[in-house]
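Something for you to look into today, if you have time. Just paste the record in under my message, thanks.
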Amino acid sequence: MAFADVNRVNTKNEEITKKMEMEKRINHMATHDELTGLPNRISFKQELMNQCDSSRNEHSSLAVMMLDFQGFKYINSALGIQSGNQMVIQMIIRLKAFLGIKNFISRYSEDQFAIIAKDLRNPEDYEAMAQSVASLFTRPFKVDIYEFPVTMNMGISIFSHDIENSKTADDEDSEQISDELIRHANVALLWARKEGKNHYQFYSSDISIQNYKQFELRNDLRKAIEKNQFEVYYQPVVQLETTEILAAEALIRWNHPDWGMVSPQEFIYLAEETGAIVEMGKWMLREICSNSKNWKQKGIPQTKVTINFSSIQFYEKDFVENIKSILDEFQFDPKFLIIELTESLLSKDGDKVMADIQRLQTLGIKVALDDIGTGLSSLAYLNTFNIDVLKMDSAFIRNIMFDKKTAIIARTIVNLARDLEIKLVAVGIENWEQLSFLQEANCHAGQGYLYSRPLPLTEFENILKSGKCDPAFLERTTIDVSEEKRQSLRLDFEPFIEAELTIIKILEKKMNVGNTKILIKNIGPSGLCFISNIKFPIEQEFTLRFTTILFDRKIETHGTPVWIEEIEQGFYQYGVDFTIDQNEREELTETLIEIQAKLTVQ
């Protein structure tokens, strides 16, 4: 071979080698954390799938440990990012020194590490390991000349205990199992956080359904805006004397893919904890401006809209500027916007709040104070802050017909608002007796179920077109029970009997979550009626398992809720159709006949 040819071959080989090295580096960068050199989330999931395959074949166990750390942001802001990075590296050194090369360690996110621990003989061994890992972080870390304590919480899920022994394990592939292990470890991590600092928790399927629901909501919250899952509902504010619609309160709802329409009470505090409340508030204001612009184009009367802001939003550095920017974007007239704040906000940083209220009012925006009647200092703030609207709290309205002192205070607030020339809105008017009292007291305006529940956009527009909203008898928000397929045999219980409820499937997603107490009102071969403080979406297909004991006979069956009725605030009554085969139905019928005979004897 000629010398020139040899050179060309060598050059070609060098180019191939460089390309391979470059691809290797790029692949490493994509699958590893730059700071620590640890595998990242992508590598962790792939490794966990491989380990799950091995464990299933070898009939061995493994555990996923999710470690969450708090304190990085404080160090970063106090000493700079470089100091925060030193802290992370020191933490990894401690973990590696204890875990060695046998256990897989990953930097799962900025402040979360994930560990795959293998081949321990029983759950007690994994617990001993968890205790040892937790003890690594009881000592502070030294960064430069400073010492910092680190708050660590850990959630653990064990493969053999939680997955391998489940009825559905054979039907699942390694990716499904690994995803479930990660989800379970994160659920356990959430419980550990609730326990306080430096706690760990093992996942158990005995978790309450409400806790599981809160985990799912927290986990899905940040992506809800980009997935367009939020909706704005409107509740009319009515002039009590004329029934004219004066304004509407805008209320956010979350149309969750599994849990259906979720109320703010279930996710606003999660949004505040995670910081998602800021983007959520901006999204909601844009939606209100867009809807109002469409009303104008459709010839529908434009009305004032009230929007709630939490203290976290109010303490944004550019809070007022951000609002003005959104209003300018939609050419929204500020006089149609009312911003609602709570008494607790006024007590935290009076000077900033006062300055922001003045700037909002200079733009033409009105400011409302919520929860009047529940706080001791609400009235004192009227002398300090320039408030345009007062809202009398619903809990306060609920008691005016039963408590003489509450009624006297209510009349005093109505008269005070009139003398100060401040508009007053009574919130939570639910019956004619409350309305009559407020009208007699000359209360200016009100809102509540007697007039209208919060409505989706299209339904609210239909009311807004007329300009009025008359009070009416409340309708039952339930599907007629007669629609449920029933058989003649039905046992009614007085008092109601206690049972345990478990979610076994959501749509086609197999679950085994919950050990939550409920009350069964009645039961027959085709279904039952139960009462719970958990709100299940009827439009979604939830399959639930019910377990109870009657006369020493265990009854276990499953079915799907087909109707719902809110019987009082926070409590719901459900009708359930059983999803059982004919043999199971006949067996249940025989059991119920026996129990009915025993009840008759009693």
Remarks:
- The longest strand covers residues 491-506.
- DSSP finds 20 helices and 22 strands in the chain.
- The chain has four domains: 1-31, 37-204, 219-466, 481-601.
